[in-house]
Structure formats: C-alpha cells, structure tokens
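Appendix B. Chain record.
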Amino acid sequence: MTLRHIVLTNQSSKNISFSDVSDVAQALQIQLDRDFTPIWGVRATVIPLDTGEAIPKSAWPMRIVDKPEGGLGIHLDKNHKPFAQIQDTDDWSVTASHELLEMLVDPFGHKFVRGPDMTPGSDGHLVSYLVEVGDPCENFSYTIGGVAVSDFVTPDYYNEASAAGTDFDFLTRLSKPYDVPGGCYISWIDPLDGQWHQKQTDGTFVRSKEEVDPKRNPRDDRDALLGDEDDGLRHDLSRIRRKYLPAALKRSA
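Structure tokens predicted for this chain:
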C-alpha cells in the first residue's frame, strides 16, 4: 500500500496560526488512520508547514488560500502532481478534510465506476460516475479533538446491489446507493450522448452542451463543460453548509 506524503500550509492573508494548522493536520491524520484507511485502503502522512516553509518536492500540497487559481478543489500542476486549494473560511478544516480524502482516492481525477443512470425518467442504463468521495455527503461533518472534518462515502455507495443495513457513508446519513441529498452533488458521463451529467446541490439535473473532451483531464473537463451553478457554490463548501445544513440536520434527526 503506497504511503502518500501530504503537507498542509496557510498561504492566505487570514491569520491562521501554525498551532491551528498543526491541530487540523493532527485531526486529519487521526481521521485517515482510524476512519478512512480501513474503509478505502489508502494511506498518507499529513505534515503541517509553517508560513514560508518550502514544500518538499515529493509531497502533495494542500494550500489555504484567499483566491484560488483555476477554482477551489484538486488540480494537477505542470508535472501532473496533484495539489488542493482550500478557502480560508471559518470552517476550512472541513474543506481540508474533504479535499484530502478525495485526493487520496482519485488524485488524478480519472477514476470512474459504472452504475445506473439516476436521471429522472431514465431506463437505468449504466453510466460512468466520477468517484469523488466527499461530494455526495459534503453537508455532513464530525469532530476529532475539537476539529471538524468531513463525512465521506464508502465503496458500497457505488454498489447498487448493496444489502440492507450497509453503510453508504461514514456517518450513515445516506439511505441508499447513489443517494444525493440537498447541498451535495454527483457527476457522471452518459455513453448514450457522450456528455457530462450532474445532480447539483439544489437537486436539479443538468448536462453539458458539448461532448466530453477525451484529451482533457476528466475532472477539469467536467468543471469546464458544466460550469458552476450559483456563482461557484458547488466548490464553496462553506457556503453549501450555510445554505443547506438546516435541511441536513433535519435529515439526520
């Protein structure tokens, strides 16, 4: 099992102390070792860096930033190495957890699973879902040592034949495979039209106007062709939680 090396650093203008960065890194390490690795089988060390410290060449960086370049989330640099950008909001630790877990499961943005089309009125033919382990349950979080971290789906989330009683996400908020509550989203490619489709955070279903570009990284292609509803709401996890969390709490009651 490959051991990835992740560094967490504050590059924003917000006064986030090294102590706070270290506390979050420690919580993320506990989440990985205790909760995530046993389910998904990926391992990593999470190291905090103080402001101005150089990022080791072998490490995958997670940067807290004021304004992201190319949008929030996970991207690939010129050497095809993944990095994550985290908005410097009050609950940035949840976003850091979300991006960390997704980066470890699909660092290069091209992992798909086959499942039934969820579009209303569909015949349920098989489509290719992009594996993003935080997006279908991104409203939900829990705390480790006082630090808030993100919920995540399990591999059984992508198995439509999962038995009753199966856990589809770590916090067991999701009731069935491919469940996507308000404030959460999922993306897929339909082989019948060669286009991106998505159930968005507001519950609507959309598809791209153009076909998939096979020369572009799938995750980037999805973002380029579908855009972002509500001025970037999909990747702004803090705004999503503020907007949809009351409904999420009712759902979990």
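Further analysis of this model is presented in Appendix C.
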